[in-house]
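cron nightly-structures :: item 1 of 1
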Amino acid sequence: MIPISRPAIGKEELKAVKEVIESGTLSSGAVTKDFEKCFSQYIETEHAIATSSGTSALQVGIEALDINKGSEVITTPFSFIASSNALLFNYLKPVFADIDPDSFNIDPEELEEKITQRTRAVLVVHLYGNPCRMKEIVELCEDHNLILIEDCAQAAGAEYCNRKVGSFGDISCFSFYATKNMVSGEGGMIVTGNEELAERARLLRNHGQNGQYNHVMLGYNYRMTDIQAAIAREQLRKLDKLNAKRIENAKFLTEQLAGIENIETPTVGKDIKHVFHQYTIKVLGGKRDAVLQALNRNGVGARVYYQKPIYAQPIYQRVGLVSRCPVAEEIVDQVISLPVHPMLSRAELKSVVKGVENAVKT
């Protein structure tokens, strides 16, 4: 089986972990602080706050914004559920705007239509490593005095107009889960240019402490360990190289899959650096499930991300967050993600292409 993901862990990460273990400091310490500094420099933001996961980064980052409970936040229905769950954890109401059928990201025109007097923020997700149309979204937020939150969990190193994703939002969040473009097993990061927000986030992730056993607010234990930070710091040093390999693999797949009936390959917009956390094709003609099953039977670890809009999840239906986004509802029945990770050999990439060709014929 050619796996959908495979972490690019080498001797550098092993050495870094060994050094942390030998230091005797396994929890959050100097290595985590240095990783935060390196990451903020990479994204070109002033502050970076490391957390235990991408989900905890979202939860803490949004809580740090201190948005009034019950406020509406416009977001995408086509994402992993953690993005909008973080809103619910903070007693905010997700309002779903439909997506662009080519980029799979939130459509700025649909977003604008959802703005009401109750709207306080916009949460965008750079899905599959593909940046959203940030110029339009930033302008909308400025025109309507809205907070901008970026979920960059799948897009470390991606760029819009030569600017890193994560540098646009009032708060932006990253994930270093084991399948991401840079990994630490688990782990996340909040970045911001606002010192007050950064300080609130630091307090929230560490039991609300501003000194040992001095708790000034209610907080969590969402700290990153130095073991996680050691791995992630080495991964950050390799990130551009690993992303370049993903982009190269995606280009090969697009060239080789061109012209296959009922298959649409990913598009990359102008001034976009898509880092291909996932290489996601559309299968037309109602054949997606048959193609997916054929790929898996023949050793290609293809997956569907995601199988239904977030508002169609049982928990969202149960709490009455019913919506309707026709494009997203159509896309969820068409998408298949193919292996594109940097550890793939050219022979494996050719096998993926052959698998798609054979699957379409079944």
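cron nightly-structures :: done
The chain has a mean pLDDT of 97.
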